[in-house]
Amino acid sequence: MSLEAAVCLRSPNRKPRYRARHRQEMKDAGIVPTKRQWAWNVRPQVLKLLLLPSWVQGVRIRGLGWSAGSVWLWQVDARRLIREDRRAGGRAVVVRTELRHCPQCARPLVGAEAEKRRLLNESCPDGVLLPCGGNCARERELGVWRTLNPHYRLARRSREVA
User: Which of 34, 60, 99, 158 makes an SS bond possible with 39, Cβ 3.0 to 4.6 Å?
Assistant: First the structure.
């Protein structure tokens, strides 16, 4: 048996590393690869909105409203709420969606908008500086989304300081 055949027998399930190669190509082109961010919309069955634990108000994703009986949370907090709902005898309904904030106006983009924004950020080195839509410049001036999420950094401000 040749050495090549032995290598093939040892690792038949080894797949080519397309993602790693793609990320390296992006870095070589001067583009910062981004990771997907996921938001979870949790609708508890037993723990209703008025009876939700007090910690939920502090960890909900700002800028995304909560409707009757559902709240937007990050993965860790969503799993914690689901676990608490199961302990109470309920079965929470969960919808997982991609989330991204516009680096210009800090507007939260959900679902297909977030995916489109992520691909735009990865399209060219200055993709982060492109607006998310027609109202992006106006919303940046007004600072509406910035007040809802004061911890979010805007791309242009961080680049101007540097």
Answer: 99
